[in-house]
Amino acid sequence: MIHATRRRALALGSLLLATAAAPAAFAQTAKPTGEPVLIGVSGPLTGPNAQYGAQWKKGFDLALDEINASGGINGRPLAYQFEDSQSDPRQAVAIAQKFVADPKIVFEIGDFSSPASMASSPIYQRAGLVQFGFTNSHPDFTKGGDFMWSNSLTQAEEQPQVAQYAVKELGLKRVAVLHLNTDWGRTSKDILVKAVRDFGAEVVATEGYLPEEKDFRSTLVRVRDANPDGLLLISYYADAALIARQLKATGLNKPVVAVGSIYSPKLIELGGDAVNGIYTNSQFFPEDPRPEVQTFVKSYIAKYGAEPDAFAARAYDTVILAGHVFRQYGTERRAIRDGLAEIKDVPSVIFGKATFDKETRRVVGAQNARLVIKDGKFVVWDRSAIPTR
Amino acid sequence: MTSWLDHTINGLIVGNIYALLAVGLALIFGVSRLINFAHGSVYVVGAYIGWVAVAHLHTPLPVTILLVAAGSALLGLLIERFGLRPLQGSTKIAPLLATIGISFVLDQIVQIVFTPDPRALPSQLPDWRFQIGGGTIGALDILIAAIGFTSAVLLFGFLRFTKLGWAVRATAQDRDAARQMGVDVDQVNRIVFAIASALGGLSGLLVGMYYNYIDPAMSFQATLKGVVAEVVGGVGNIPGAIVGSLILGLVESYGIALLGTSYRNLFAFILLVVILVLRPNGLFASKRQLPPEPLTGTFIAPSKPVPLPTPALLAALAVAAVLPLVIAQPYLLQTLTNAWLYALLGISLTLIAGTVGQISLGHAALLAIGGYTSALLTLDLGVPVGLSILAAGFVAAGLGTLLAWPAFRLRGHYVTIATLAIGEIVSLAILNWESLTRGPIGVFGIPPISLFGYPIESARAVYWFTLAILAVLAALQLRLLRSHLGRAWRAVRDDDVAARSYGIALDRYKALAFITGGFAAGISGGVTSHLYSFINHETFNAQLSILALTIVILGGMGNVFGAIVGSVLLIGLPEVFRVAAEYRVLIYGLVLLLLIRFRPQGLFGTV
């Protein structure tokens, strides 16, 4: 899919470069002044999910740098106000009231977890402020009302790709599925299991585990007893690394295919040698030659001195998208909602080009790169290199 | 059959890890009669000291171990000196809360310094692996076992055969008598905290290396598992703690083998409750052992409540009622609505913990039961919202009392641990009982509050609705406290032996308290679910139970008005500190510590 879209993306990307990514060359652009256009962000900066909030900020700041370096929102600077909810629904609800009552806030992003996001949805919906959840893959999130939008990948789209990779490309016949037992993991698992069966393979075991789980040895023995020829992981990078390391300890040497959410440099850091050979589908991959991606990765590394992960990419994408909507449709709350439905082909790291489906209020058509970890690096998977296991 | 061997080995490996935590906790409990909730934080700090040593100083393993042990011991000394020693002579509950406050502060400092991102802590041992059964064990497994075992043997010898060890044991048996015999009790405390913290930090290092993974959020789970293991072995019993840990590991592993990974903690907590009910002193307590709890009447500080005349209360209510007319800011009203909902939880807990003396750390379970009851009744059975909230109150009262029943025969800290476990069991049951609760997906689309067909949606309407419920239930509780029932409850708290000899049936009065308290909490949960329109098993989590207890202590045990003010303050403070996002929990923890230090009887005193 990367190849198919590359040419179009190239043209698009050079456009993006011209407008956004080259502040030095476009220094004559007037510095945005006046009252900033304010985005409200409700997310975790403390508490158990604080690490994701920290990634968000990095992605947001990078996007703001770009937008404000190229004239802001029609001459006004773009800014965000980040309120720490700890991803706790009570605090998210209070923050929602704060945001909807503040006329300066024209657009809201977050929250991180489904309980927190969906608890505050009724408030945003009633007040007519767009709640944009970029991590909310919960199938019911955008059903909260016509002000709930998301560019998070739906599981209905991602999981069949994982199943195809595992069954069609890698030729697995009997798979075991390990999934996070959260709303996201559970929804993903149901779709993945169905897709695997549709492709003609068998699911011999499914195991849900809690997010704070660290020890998988007993789980893996259970999986081993089901005698699979491969493992599918619906995990984040941290738990995927833990599972990979413990595979060896339980004597389970089977290929592992994981969903795109494991994509992070941290996976390699935490998993060490044990993650070598893991296959994954990723919507974001820094070596992806598309210029949107290269622009993002280069400026991210320049600003933070580290490689971005998928969370930062999504955060960045979201603010870039918001910037495009504001520029084209103005900064009135209702106009922004209508703009989201209208806007077409916004350049995006994750989607190539993002356009919303008016009915589901989600974006379809994410990029999909097939990767494998080789010698501690994510590389594009090459069909000819199928290991003969 | 080989898989059973593998499950056994896996259980022992995990148990091995728990043992390192449990030994430290047992040591501290043995001397200070204190469940050290900061132990998990010391474990985290130890892990990060190890990370700095390995990643930046490139120290070899023995030096790393020494650095971690020394650093953690120092931290233990600081905790003892500045967190706990000033609380000597105050109520038994004060140090327990102080350790909760300390753990907030420490976890947050670690998070600010090292960022919340997980880090890799590479093992410095060679990667030897030995084939056992279908799996393998590595050099690190053996090192962990060796350190756990050696430290237990050393401690056991130290306590049994050295003069200082005798002093420690004497202090454990009777602090005042030991002091009269010339034992420097503070010195003993210092030594115990240093040793226990060194062990705690070391276990953080080893567990971090074992998983090649550390993050600041791992502290709560560590405390929880350590406490369970310790209780299974018998609180304060060091060899017991090791055996208890191994048993816990085995039970978890077999539990997973039988039912699946999601059931791990369910088995752990059911084991805990069973042990508490059948052998509250742990599996290895000798019959002659003194009851490890303080005798009655000392757990909660007797103090004079601040007098609050009825007109003043009514005036406060009137101010609260007209507030939305003056302030139209929905954010403020929402925050206060949250405060009223917490206050319902607070008056519920202040009755159970303060008036009857059953310090519960599982109170969020009552909210969860109420929330799910009301949500499912409206969605699945089409019950109108007002009625469903009422039903939520009744179900929470009934089910909550039944669930707490095993804890009725327990006293003091044991009640706390048992209720903590029961709370976790409820949350895990909600997660796993998918046909009823929809499991991890949660319940979505819960209708908004309405009464007799009138929707209650605006911030103002919801504010008045919750305030009205709170006012009615608080008034009811105040009335009950002045009645015969209230006196009987306080008698149970102050001296249960004396109460029983006066013919008060302890279980029945405790049940009455749980019914009354469960009703208020259930209503609060019910309203919450309609307010949020979405709940899942994480909506009402263990942190909430800790917050509820903090509210109660802050207001003054058993003090209804205190619980309301406490919840306004504790819900308001984080909002005030929201500007200082990263430092918010830190400030919150410090405020908690200062309160416990300077006003342990709470703002309004025990009733």
From TrEMBL, chain A:
The processes (GO biological process) annotated in the record are: amino acid transport
Can you tell me where the transmembrane regions are?
A: none
**So which domain of life are we looking at?**
Bacteria
Where the record annotates domain Leucine-binding protein, the positions are: 37-364
Q: InterPro entries annotated for this entry?
A: BCAA_transport, Leu-bd, Leu_Ile_Val-bd, Peripla_BP_I, TAT_signal
Q: Which PROSITE patterns match?
A: TAT
Q: Where is the signal peptide?
A: 1-27
* UniProt-listed Pfam families: Peripla_BP_6 (PF13458)
Q: Which UniProt keywords apply?
A: Amino-acid transport, Signal, Transport
PANTHER family in the record, alphabetically?
Answer: LEUCINE-SPECIFIC-BINDING PROTEIN (PTHR30483), PERIPLASMIC BINDING PROTEIN OF ABC TRANSPORTER FOR NATURAL AMINO ACIDS (PTHR30483:SF6)
| Family, per entry | Belongs to the leucine-binding protein family.
Could you tell me what this protein is called? ABC transporter substrate-binding protein
Species of origin: Bosea caraganae
UniProtKB/TrEMBL annotation, chain B:
**Entry's localization field:** Cell membrane
UniProt-recorded Gene Ontology molecular function terms: branched-chain amino acid transmembrane transporter activity
The signal sequence is none
Q: Which UniProt keywords apply?
A: Cell membrane, Membrane, Transmembrane, Transmembrane helix
Q: What GO cellular component is one of the record's annotations?
A: plasma membrane
* Main location group: membrane
Q: Which InterPro entries match?
A: ABC_BtuC-like (IPR037294), ABC_transp_permease (IPR001851), LivM-like (IPR043428)
Q: Which residues cross the membrane?
A: 12-30, 37-57, 63-84, 96-114, 134-159, 191-211, 231-254, 266-286, 306-327, 339-361, 381-405, 412-433, 461-481, 511-532, 544-573, 585-604
- Pfam entry (one): BPD_transp_2
Q: How does it sit in the membrane?
A: Multi-pass membrane protein
Q: What is this protein called?
A: ABC transporter permease
Native source species:
Bosea caraganae
